[in-house]
Queue: 3 jobs
Job 1
Amino acid sequence: MKELTALFLGDVVGQSGVRALFAGLGDLIKKQRADFVAVNGENAQAGFGITPELALTFFSLGVNVITSGNHIWQKKEILPFLESREDILRPANYPAKAPGKGSTVVTVRGIPVGVINLQGRQDLPAINCPFQTGREVVRKMREQTRIILVDFHAEAPEEKEALGLYLDGSVSAVLGTHTHVQTSDDRILPKGSAYITDLGMCGPRDSVIGSHTGQAIQRALTQMPLKIEVSENQGRLSGVVIRMDGETGRPLEFRRI
C-alpha cells in the first residue's frame, strides 16, 4: 500500500511567522517525513496579504501549495501571480471573475494530491455558498485523485463543523483556518475524513492572534478603533500531520503539531 504524509500549516502571520518557516520548516519536514506541504499564506505580508516574492520564498522552503482567504486581495501585485500559478489558491467560492483558482492537484512521489480552498460566510463577505461550491469541486476532483485536503477559511466553528460533516467521506480532511488559535478537536469523522476546527497560526506565540498584545488590550479596554500592528515576538509553527492511504485517500494517522 502506498502511503503519503501531508503537513498542513495554519496562517503565516507577519515576519514572525515567516522567520518561523525559515528556521523550522526544513527540520519539521524531515522529522515528520512529510511528502507534501501546504500552508495558508494570506497574512504573511505584515499581517495582510502576500506578495509574489514571499510566495516564491515559501516554495523554495519546500511548500507545495499556498492557500489563502479573505486577505488574499490586500496586495495588488499578487493578482497576476494568482492567474499564472497553479500552486497558490484563493477561495473557490469567490465569483468566477475573481482572479486565480480555488483548487489544484499536484503530484508528489507519483501520487496526485488535491487541495481545495473555501471561505465561510458567517461574519465574512457574502460570497458564493462554500457547501455547494465545495461539493461540486470535490465531485470533479475525485476523478483525478482520492487524496483531497480542504482548507476552510472561516470564522464560525459551527460553519466549519457543518462543512466537515457535509464533506465527510468524500475528502481526506477538512482543515479550518482564519481564527489563528489552534483547536483541540482534531478527530476522524464518522465517515472517515479528518477534521479540525482551526490549525492555528505560524506566528508570534506571545500575541493576540498575531497582534501586538498591548495594542489589542488597549483596544478592548477603550473600544476605540485603534490601529493594531502585528507582533514581532518569537514565532512558532502550528498545523497538522496527516498520513493517508495513497489510493483511497483515507487518513491513517492525524495529529496536531
Note: Residues 173 and 228 are 33 Å apart (CA to CA).
Job 2
Amino acid sequence: MMEYSIRKATIDDYDAIYALWTATEQSLRALNPVDDSREGIDRYLKRNPNTCFAATDKDTVIGVILTGHDGRRGIIHHLCVHPDYRRMGIAGKLVDAAEEALKKEGIQKVFGLVFKDNDAANAFWENQGYSLRSNLNYRNKSFHTDIPVGE
C-alpha cells in the first residue's frame, strides 16, 4: 500500500497544484485565468487558510482540494488527484479533511459543482453522500472578461 500524507495547502504548492490541474482534461476545463492564477489562489488560501489540503507522496503533490466558506455554507471549488494515484482512496481522504475543517469552523452544509458529463466525478460525489439538487439553477455572472460565463 502506498504511503502518502495530507496537509494544509499553501501558496508554495501553487506550481505543483497548477501542473496537477492542467494534467487532467476535466480539471483543465474547470480553470479560469483569473481565479486560478497564482494571485487568485493566494487570495483564496489567505481567506481559507484551514480548509484547503494537499495530498503528497514524499514531496510530490498528488492531490488537492480547495474548499472555503462564506460563514454559512461551504463550497468545494477544486478536487483533483493525479491520474496515476486514483482509485487509492486519496480523494475521499481529501474530502474528509476538508469536511472536518469546515465543521471546526461551524459550517453545517457544503456543496460542490461537477460538470454534468463527468460521470466518474458524479459517481464519486454520490458515493461521498452528496445528493444531486435538481430543483436549483446555477447562475453565473463574470466581472472579468477573461473568466468564461459557461454554456
Note: Helices lie at 14-22, 25-28, 38-47, 90-104, 119-127.
Job 3
Amino acid sequence: MATSCPFMTRHASSYVLLVSYLRTRLWRRGEGKEAWRTQFLVPKALLGLLAFDVLGLGRNFARMHRCVTRWRTAQPTAPKDAVDRVCNAVNYACVWYPKRVLCLQRSLVTTCLLRHCGVQAKMVFGAQNLPFKAHAWTEVGDRAINERKDVQKIYGVWERC
C-alpha cells in the first residue's frame, strides 16, 4: 500500500536514512548502549542552568548542596571523551543562556552532567583569604575540569561533594 504512493515512499526512504545515520552515530566505536547518555548534552545543560534558576538553588545553599551530594553517578562506564563532550556542551549552554552564568551554577551543571554520563566528578568549593574570593569548580580525578590550571593553587578547598 505504501509503495503505490510516491509521497510515502520518498518520506519512508528519508526516514530509513535518518534512522541508519542516528544508529551509526549512537553505536559508533563500540560505545554500546552507554552512548545515549552523552547525546543531547547542550539541551540538557541548558535545562540544568534553567532548573538552577527556577529552583532558586543560588539563593539556598543547603538545597543546592543536597542536590549535588544526592546526585549519583550512573553505573555504566563513561565513553572516553565524555568529559570533553560535557565541558563543550556546558560552554555552549553558558553562551546561549540569557543570563550571566556564575561559577556555582556552572560547576553544579557540569558535575551533574558528568555524573549522568558515568564519570566520577566532584563539585569543589574554595576560597582565598586576601582579597577574599570564593569560587566553585568541578574535579575529575583530582584535576580541575573546564577551569584555569592553577585554580587549586589559588583557592583553598572548603569542601568536595
Note: The chain has two domains: 1-30, 31-160.
